[in-house]
Design goal:
alpha+beta, Immunoglobulin-like, five-stranded antiparallel beta sheet, elongated
Length: about 210
């Protein structure tokens, strides 16, 4: 005897084609009712089979409701992220990776992360022509995130780049990751991802590590 389970299995197989309509809980219930109406009076559905199919319907309904809940949560989360991204306009942010900094005001903090303790750290700052404008030396810095302050003097406002070199107590090179800082001048959305414009570059919203 053909059962709802058989029909549901066939429908599930058919959904492998993108052109086929997805079987939902309403379709499942309609088939169950149709099966009851058209069953053989001399060979009615076994009570155990009927209970099993009701359990299948209940499970399908729960999964459908859960799926709708997940979709709603995803839309809510995206809306929250969009609002947070727009609120960053005009604020200074730090990005996990990068080597540019928007320099305004008398001083600028330059961030970097050391893979391990360093005995000697050298920070070299370049202008937009690639010329060295400042070299800063530091000693005995711990592993992790560190900053040095660049007192700019009469240097013009603008976008600068910097490089950081570090050595441990034995003179071996220490791995360094520099961090981009700058003001958010734009927000746009592409491929379901939020991007911020910082120092003329498009940066994924999720890459922001600090906001001032």
């Amino acid at each position: 005897m053909t059962t709802v389970s058989n029909i549901a299995q066939s429908a599930t197989t058919a959904t492998a084609s993108a052109s086929q309509k997805t079987l939902g809980k309403d379709d499942f219930l309609k088939m169950l009712v149709a099966q009851l109406k058209n069953q053989d009076p001399l060979n009615p559905m076994d009570g155990t089979d009927f209970a099993a199919q009701l359990a299948q319907f209940s499970s399908l309904e729960q999964l459908t409701n859960m799926n709708e809940g997940i979709k709603s949560l995803g839309i809510y989360q995206m809306s929250m992220n969009n609002a947070q991204a727009v609120n960053l306009l005009g604020k200074e942010v730090t990005i996990g990776q990068g080597n540019t900094v928007s320099a305004e005001g008398p001083s600028v903090d330059l961030g970097y992360e050391l893979a391990k303790d360093a005995k000697q750290v050298t920070v070299v700052i370049y202008d937009d022509k690639g010329d060295v404008v400042k070299t800063i030396e530091r000693t005995d810095q711990k592993a992790g995130v560190n900053t040095v302050t660049w007192n700019r003097g009469d240097e013009e406002d603008g976008i600068y780049t910097y490089a950081v070199m570090a050595q441990d107590a034995d003179g071996n090179n220490v791995s360094v990751t520099t961090k981009m800082t700058g003001k958010v001048t734009g927000v746009h959305f592409k491929d379901q991802t939020i991007y911020l414009t910082v120092n003329g570059q498009d940066i994924a919203f999720d890459d922001v590590t600090d906001v001032k």
